[in-house]
């Protein structure tokens, strides 16, 4: 299994409130996470970084999974713990009031992948069948699209595009979506913040991931570069996980 993680502050913002992490536990199972912090500098940083560091500690003590159900249950139990930790931190630290973070994570075993998300950070699957969005944004605009009130084209330029309906750490109770899929050799999972998905079309993402000439790290760098070339107004973060023999890990970009 090959993995690459990159996080870039983009061309406009002075600080990077995104955090990413790829961790392998004692059983050789990979956990990959992208968290897009919200609440302004310091608060956004704190929420996303606390999320990544907390899951790293938990993952170090986690063993194997005998089924997708067990992986889905693991996500639910530990998201509740991390959510409450973030919520209490904001209550006890006035400078962090209102902080929260999106969350998209995937547990990758040899047989299956379990995808969990909150907010508008996304997970895509690239395989022999094509390129598919595996998550649905928990955002106001996406709900308007789903209910037929606006079109997907309207959503691209909607003035309230960044309004989230769910986030990690903003409420006492956390609501998330989780699903599991079978894993095949050559499958690629792309986890990303909206700094990438808002700037790079799915067609371009698929084209880049299709390239046989580029290594996984080069593909990740090309995606970040394209997001910056298209404006780079937001932080840009991604993780690529490829189901293939061997290992490959990219360095996080500042």
From TrEMBL:
Gene3D superfamilies membership: PPM-type phosphatase domain
EC number annotated for this UniProt entry: 3.1.3.16
NAD among keywords: no
Needed co-factor(s): Mn(2+)
Coiled coil regions in record: none
Cross-referenced NCBIfam families: Stp1_PP2C_phos (NF033484)
CDD domains reported in the protein's UniProt record: PP2Cc
Protein name: protein-serine/threonine phosphatase
Entry annotated with the keyword Coiled coil: no
Catalytic class of the enzyme: hydrolase
GO molecular function, a single term: protein serine/threonine phosphatase activity
Keywords, comma-separated and alphabetical: Hydrolase, Manganese, Metal-binding, Protein phosphatase
Known catalytic reactions: O-phospho-L-threonyl-[protein] + H2O = L-threonyl-[protein] + phosphate; O-phospho-L-seryl-[protein] + H2O = L-seryl-[protein] + phosphate
Domain PPM-type phosphatase: 1-243
């Amino acid at each position: 299994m090959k993995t690459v993680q990159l996080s870039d502050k983009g061309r406009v913002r002075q600080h990077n409130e995104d955090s990413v992490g790829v961790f392998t536990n004692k059983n050789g199972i990979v956990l990959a996470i992208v968290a897009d912090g919200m609440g302004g500098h310091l608060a956004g940083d704190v929420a996303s970084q606390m999320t990544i560091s907390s899951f790293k500690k938990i993952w170090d003590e986690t063993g194997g999974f005998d089924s997708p159900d067990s992986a889905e249950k693991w996500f639910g139990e530990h998201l509740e713990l991390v959510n409450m930790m973030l919520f209490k931190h904001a209550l006890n630290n006035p400078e962090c009031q209102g902080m929260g973070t999106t969350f998209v994570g995937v547990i990758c075993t040899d047989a299956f992948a379990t995808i969990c998300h909150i907010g508008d950070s996304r997970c895509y699957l690239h395989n022999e069948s094509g390129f598919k969005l595996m998550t649905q944004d928990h955002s106001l605009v996406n709900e308007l699209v789903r209910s037929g009130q606006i079109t997907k084209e309207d959503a691209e330029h909607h003035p309230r595009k960044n309004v989230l309906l769910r986030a990690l750490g903003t409420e006492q109770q956390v609501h998330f979506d989780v699903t599991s899929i079978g894993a095949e050799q050559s499958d690629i999972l792309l986890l990303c913040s909206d700094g990438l998905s808002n700037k790079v079309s799915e067609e371009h993402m698929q084209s880049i991931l299709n390239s046989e000439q580029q290594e996984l790290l080069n593909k990740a760098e090309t995606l970040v570069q394209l997001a910056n070339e298209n404006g780079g107004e937001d932080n840009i973060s991604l993780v690529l996980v490829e189901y293939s023999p061997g290992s490959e890990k990219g360095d996080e970009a500042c």
